[in-house]
Amino acid sequence: MKARVICLVFVASVAVCLLAGVAAANQANDCIMMVSNAEAFIREKGVEYALKVFSTRNSPFVDKDLYIFVLSMDNVMLAHPFNPGLIGKNFSDHKDSNGKFVFQEFKKVVNGKGEGWVDYTWPKPGEQGEFPKSAYVKKVHGQDMYIGASYFK
């Protein structure tokens, strides 16, 4: 009987871990898809209009806590749907709670491979402190900017 309980606990633990991994993979795929769609939207509608849309909470580029953000290659925020006060602010010197220059890391990725992932910490709305987050960032072809989407791990 005790062996059965241990076995059931083990199986349940494995199932929870597998589901957590699937959820993280889905969030990562959602980030990549949203960034790809945002890049296509910029090409189709133009930069000025796209930045307005990306800065709107009820746009198709906001899905709960997943959204598009846009920065210039100088790390000036160009679009953010939840905090318009960030737009126009330079984030080059912003460090997360671990001392990582997050936006400099974003810039390294887009200047290097053109796109990729950066792990960092960021405040979670309604909670104290910073939490682990992953961002997928991509240079916008032919523009002096990059776009990104991120999720809390």
UniProtKB/TrEMBL annotation:
<keyword id="KW-1003">Cell membrane</keyword>
<keyword id="KW-0812">Transmembrane</keyword>
<dbReference type="InterPro" id="IPR033480">
    <property type="entry name" value="sCache_2"/>
</dbReference>
<keyword id="KW-0732">Signal</keyword>
<keyword id="KW-0472">Membrane</keyword>
<protein>
    <submittedName>
        <fullName>Cache domain protein</fullName>
    </submittedName>
</protein>
<feature type="signal peptide">
    <location>
        <begin position="1"/>
        <end position="28"/>
    </location>
</feature>
<dbReference type="Pfam" id="PF08269">
    <property type="entry name" value="dCache_2"/>
</dbReference>
<dbReference type="InterPro" id="IPR004010">
    <property type="entry name" value="Double_Cache_2"/>
</dbReference>
<dbReference type="GO" id="GO:0005886">
    <property type="term" value="C:plasma membrane"/>
</dbReference>
<keyword id="KW-1133">Transmembrane helix</keyword>
<feature type="domain" description="Single Cache">
    <location>
        <begin position="20"/>
        <end position="104"/>
    </location>
</feature>
